[in-house]
Amino acid sequence: MKINKKKIEELKERLISLGKFLEVDKKEKELAILQKEITKPEVFSDSKKLQELNQKMSVLKKEVDDYLALKKEVLDLEEMGKLFDDDSQEVEEINKDIILVEKKLKELEIASLFKEEVDKKGAILTIHPGAGGVESCDWAGMLLRMYLKFFEKKNFKYEILELKPNEEAGIKEAVIEITSSNAYGYLKSEIGVHRLVRISPFDANQRRHTSFASVFVYPEIEDIEVKIDEKDLKIETFRASGHGGQHVNKVSTAVRITHIPTGITVSCQSERSQYLNKRNALKILQVKLYKYYEEKKKEELKKYEEKKTEIAWGYQIRSYILFPYQLVKDHRTNYERRDVEAVLDGDIEDFIFAYLTKKYPSY
Asked: Does residue 144 lie in a domain region?
C-alpha cells in the first residue's frame, strides 16, 4: 500500500480554491477591525450595537477558524507524506486520515455555498407518492429510507411528524422535521419529482415499471415571539381630545407610540394617567406586532407553497434506474453515479454539491 500523495495534492488545490471563494484573507482583516471596534466606549455602552457586532464576529470567526483548522490538517497530511515511506507501518493510518480530511473539506465546500439566510435554518421535508398505487407508495418508502440514512450520516437531528403507511407496501405520506442547522441548505436540492425505473417486485410477470414520488422542503420558520425594545420606540405625549373636562385639555396624558422598524403607530388617550395610556398603548402594540409578524410568516410560507405548485408532476429532477442498467442521474446538473445502492443508502452529498455549484457557478 502506498500513501495517496495524489489525493493530498488534490486536497491542497481544493483548499486553495475554497479559501479564495470564501475570501478568508479579507474576513481575517474584517475580524481584526471588528475586534477593535467592539472595545470603543460608545459601542460598549450601546447594547443593541454590541449584540450586532458580536453576532457578526461570531459568524466570521467560525468561517475563518473552520478554514484554518482544515488547512492545518491538509498541511499535516502533506508533511506526513514527505516524512514516511510507502512501506511504512503508518501508511494505512495516513490514508484513513486523508479520507476523513476529504470528508471535512466536502462539508466546508457545501456550507460555503449556503448563500441565503434561510439556508442556515432547519427544514421540513415531505414525501408523497405519485399515481401508480403500490409501486409509487413503495418508491416513496424507499426515498424516506434514503433520506433517513442521509440524516444519520450527517448527524442531523430529526423527528418524523407524520407517517401514513400504505397497506400493501411503502407509504402514502411522510413529513419529517430536521432541526439541525444548515438542513434547508442541504435539502433544498431535493425539491422535485424523483423517478424510479425497475423490475417490479409486485408484478408476477416481472415487467419493467416506472414510478414517481415528489419531495418538497420548507425552511423551518420560528414561532412568533414579539419582543419590544425601548430603543425601537418613538414615544410622544399630547393633550387628549374629547370629553373629560379641563384636566383632559390641559395635561398631556395621551400617548402615541411608533415602532420604528415596522412603522406601526398606536395611540391611547382613554385614561386620565399618562402611565396607564402608555401601558395600554404597549399592549395594543404587542398585539399589532404579533399580527404583523404572523402575516410575514404566512407570506413566507405562501412563497414556498407557490414554488411547490410550480413543481407539479412534470418537474423530474432525478432518475434512479435499476433496470436494464444501474444509474442515478440528476437532470438539472447531468451529474450521475452508477453505485445505485450506495445512493439509496443515503450517499447523496455529491448530488447536492453538483446542484449548488451549478446554482452558484462562481465557486
From this structure: yes
pLDDT band at 247 (very low <50, low <70, confident <90, very high): very low
- What pLDDT was estimated at residue 9? 94
What would the pLDDT profile of 106-129 be if each residue is shown by its tens digit?
Answer: 999 999 999 888 898 899 999 999
Same domain, 316 and 293: no
Q: How far, CA to CA in Å, does 189 sit from each of 105, 218, 323, 327, 355?
A: 20, 12, 25, 19, 6
CA distances from 159 to 151, 162, 305, 353 (A): 11, 9, 22, 25
Contact 41, 86 (CB under 8 A): no
- In this predicted structure, the answer to whether residue 178 has a pLDDT above a threshold of 60 is yes
307 inside domain: no
Pairing state between β 158-165 and 123-129: unpaired
pLDDT tens for each residue of 185-219: 999 999 999 999 999 998 878 888 999 999 999 88
- Together in a domain, 219 and 317: yes
Asked whether residue 18 falls in the same domain as residue 124, the answer is no
Domain encompassing residue 263: 230-298
* Chain CA centroid to CA 357, Å: 16
Rounded to the nearest 10°, the torsion over CA 242, 246, 252, 256 is: -10
Q: Is residue 303 part of a domain?
A: no
Query: In whole numbers, what is the pLDDT of the chain averaged over residues?
Result: 89
Specify the 3-state DSSP secondary structure of 149.
Answer: helix
Contact by Cβ (8 Å): 121, 220: yes
Shared-domain flag, residues 140 and 217: yes
Is pTM, for the whole model, over 0.85? Answer: no
The CB density around residue 110, as the number of other CB atoms within 10 Å, is 20
Task: Determine which helix (DSSP H) or strand (DSSP E) holds 238, and give its type and residue range.
Answer: strand 233-238
Looking at residue 270, which CATH number applies to its domain?
3.30.160.20
**What is the edge-to-edge ordering of all strands in the sheet holding 264-268?**
233-238, 254-259, 264-268
